[in-house]
Amino acid sequence: MKDSQLEKMSLKELKALKNKIEKTIRAKHDRERAELRNRMKQMAENAGFSLAELFGGKGGRRGPVTAKYAHPDDPSLTWSGRGRMPKWLSEKVKAGANPQDFRI
Q1: Are 102 and 71 in contact (CB under 8 A)?
Q2: SS3 assignment, position 59
């Protein structure tokens, strides 16, 4: 499609074209990914392996991290020790407390 053809299209037509292109890209991506996975699976099986043996089990998101610190007065306020320190704990530390005092 030439630039001059795009310039003649209305905004509504351009958005419809964009949506169609994005949908086609997603479909092609999914199809190529599945084809590659099938080829890799076949190669692994020919060598006597499974994909899980070669690449490990299911990846992805892990479960929630267990809490390591708890507020002394409100045990529902906890912190895993990862990420930003919660306000209640940072206030206690600023007041001179040791974070280890709140360890579960």
Answers
A1: yes
A2: coil
Question: Is the per-residue pLDDT at 1 higher than 80?
Answer: no
Overall residue count recorded for the chain in this entry: 104
More confident residue, 61 or 94: 94
Provide the β-strand partners of residue 69.
Answer: 79, 103
* Percentages (nearest 5) of helix, strand, coil residues in the chain: 55, 5, 40
> Is the whole-model pTM more than 0.85?
no
Neighbours of 92 (CB within 10 A): 19
d(CA 33, CA 41): 12
| String of DSSP letters for 2-57 | -HHHHHHS-HHHHHHHHHHHHHHHHHHHHHHHHHHHHHHHHHHHHTT--HHHHH-S
Model confidence at 64, pLDDT cuts 50, 70, 90, reads confident
